[in-house]
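Handout, page 2. Input:
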Amino acid sequence: MSDVPVIDLSKAPGERAAWDASVWKVYLWAVCELLFVTNPWQISSGLRVRVLRAFGAEIGHGVIFRPRTRVKFPWKLHIGDRSWIGEGVWFHNQDHIHIANDVVISQETFLTTGSHAHRRDMALITRPIHVEAGAWITSRCVVLGGTRVGRSALVRPLTLLDGKEIPAAEVWGGNPAVFVTGRFVGAAA
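Output:
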């Protein structure tokens, strides 16, 4: 026998703690997400946006939503005008995700607001994500709850943002994420 404890997962607080909606709405959303949002066919971005809005997502004008995207709970998703959501982006939003205007979230990026009390009982812990105007989170990044990406900041491919605050107009990258340079250094006026 080992002295290392094991958490009995049958006693862990349930997933439904983050739903904030009725069972029928969550299940109906799962079907609509599969048919209209996650669907890999090149159906209209506008149709994806309309379906998301029908389930409570706040999405501004001119937003592009590419195929194979996933949204856990659309009623906790807020996206400003003219933002681009790349193919395969996954919003695992058990808490709110706020994306401002003119933001790019590139292919295969995973944004998750949930974690677990791993030392106690595996209860769900959530923190929101905020991405400010003009930011670009490039491909295959992982953005964890509690992260704030500043105005016009750039996050390089394959970066892990673990609850960090990325200052405005800075480029960050790596795992763990570190400052690389200013985004507009040497840019023509």
